[in-house]
Amino acid sequence: MQPSVLSLALIALLGLINFGRGAIHILAPDGGLTMIAGLDTAAAPDLALTLIASVGAGQIAFGLVDVAAVTRYRTFVRPLLLIHLAQAALAVFLLFVWRPFAHDVPGQWGALAAFVIIGFFTALEYSRKSDAPA
Q1: Spans of all domains in the chain
Q2: How far is CA 18 from CA 24, 58, 127, 131, in A?
Q3: Measuring CA to CA, which residue among 89, 97, 14, 22 is closest to residue 52?
């Protein structure tokens, strides 16, 4: 079954977000840790920058998967919604339950919003009737 236009648009948007935040984590002098998240990296700045840059590399790679799904491999959009939902759920668990920061950071609220939004659109996509004749 082909994905809906809404699902294609959501995956395209998630791809852009992945490229943007990945670029910030790789290219910003502090990886966005201080200027965006307000974290103190003074104890191990090189370690923090290396770790956040590796996160950024993964985000850019995920963005490439998103773009490939939207432009060429559209049958992968539906399962990709589930993968994005699982990633958001894990991020929410990590940032709110298992290893929360000492203070709020934008990423935790972004993860919560992403979980709700992606969950809603995933439910919509998977509740659609098949367009193939029965």
Answers
A1: 5-127
A2: 10, 9, 26, 31
A3: 22
Q: Which residues contact 58 (CB under 8 A, 6 or more apart)?
A: 22
Tell me the pLDDT tens digit for each residue of 98-118: 999 888 998 899 999 999 999
Whose tokens are 């985000």? That residue is 59
Please tell me the distance from the alpha carbon of residue 102 to that of residue 99, in angstroms, as a whole number: 9
Under DSSP, the state recorded for 42 is T
Per-position DSSP letters for 43-110, written without gaps between them: TSHHHHHHHHHHHHHHHHHHHHHHHHHHHT-GGGHHHHHHHHHHHHHHHHHIIIIIS--SS--HHHHH
Helix axis angle, 45-71 relative to 77-93, nearest 10°?
A: 160
d(CA 80, CA 77) in angstroms, rounded, equals 5
Task: Give the model's confidence band at 130: pLDDT under 50 very low, under 70 low, under 90 confident, else very high.
Answer: confident
Tell me the percentage of the chain whose pLDDT exceeds 70. 97
* Encoded amino acid at 62, one letter: F
Q: What is the pLDDT of residues 4-21, one digit of tens each?
A: 999 999 999 999 999 999
CB 69 within 8 A of CB 11: yes
